[in-house]
Amino acid sequence: MYEVTIAIPIYQVEEFIENTMNNALSQSFQSIEYLIIDDCGKDNSLNIVENIKLNHPRGENIHIIKTDKNSGIAVVRNLAIDHAKGKYLYFMDGDDEISNDCIELLHNFISKYNLDFVSASYQKIELNGHVTCKIHKELHINQPNSLAKLHYRSHNGLLHGTMCNILYNIKWLRENNIKCNPGTLYEEPEFLIQLITHTKSCYLLPNITYYYKLRNKNLSLFAYIEYFS
Questions:
Q1: Distant-in-sequence, close-in-space partners of 169: CB < 8 Å, separation ≥ 6
Q2: Staple partner for 109: which of 73, 91, 118, 120, CB 3.0–4.6 Å?
């Protein structure tokens, strides 16, 4: 059994996936499963991943799942929750990057405090090079309903409106049936509502560990995320 699963969906990301995979595979933390879920894209993304699996020193830890048809990100994320072999689960998109110590840092907190999840901060890099940082105030929550109360009382919300850059206790997700709804246009806000409702213990960190590379394809998604965060 692995300590952590990094789940990476791939769909039309052939320009970026090699960089993203090499970035994820360079993590300082060792006990990681790399769960790649191919959502029937028509480009060369899957071939690139399969080549990395064959040639990278950590290739034996890369596991690939293929959907029967293009099913959308909600279905893909649910497959990750169902099939992850790690004790903890981390979502990463196929065109982004994380800091080399990201998983080590988050794992230290989630294991030390026996948390439902730990969330760190991120940097958003736009097409024109403009950089925006979303920084958590450091906060440890260890009482039922405390996160919900603080989140909804906060002007901008405590969580940043995305499922990525959060290390989840997979047993807790499964026991509470916290999943995405495939019937929604944007799966993340509804998922985070479930997350906030069921959380008894979590930690928010100011450390920037995730780097969103904003593309044309996800401009509208980020506008939606920022509206609700």
A1: 87, 88, 110, 115, 116, 117
A2: 118
* Calpha distance 184→210 (Å, rounded): 25
Burial 79-114 (b: 16+ CB within 10 A, else e): bbbeebebbbbbbbbbbbbbbeebbbbbbebbeeee
Tokens 């997700």 label which residue?
A: 173
pLDDT at residue 185, as a whole number: 65
Phi, psi (deg, nearest 5) at residue 203: -140, 135
- Evaluate the CA torsion angle 123, 125, 40, 65 in order and state its sign: negative
Q: In whole angstroms, give the CA distance from residue 104 to residue 161.
A: 23
- φ, ψ dihedrals at 154, nearest 5°: -75, 140
The percent of residues above 90 in pLDDT, for the chain, comes to: 78
Q: For residue 152, what pLDDT band results from cuts at 50, 70 and 90?
A: confident
pLDDT digits (tens, 9 = 90+) for 157-178: 678 778 999 999 999 999 999 9
Pairing of strands 166-169, 117-125: antiparallel
Burial class for 56, CB neighbours closer than 10 Å (0-12, 13-18, 19+): middle
pLDDT greater than 60 at residue 223 = no
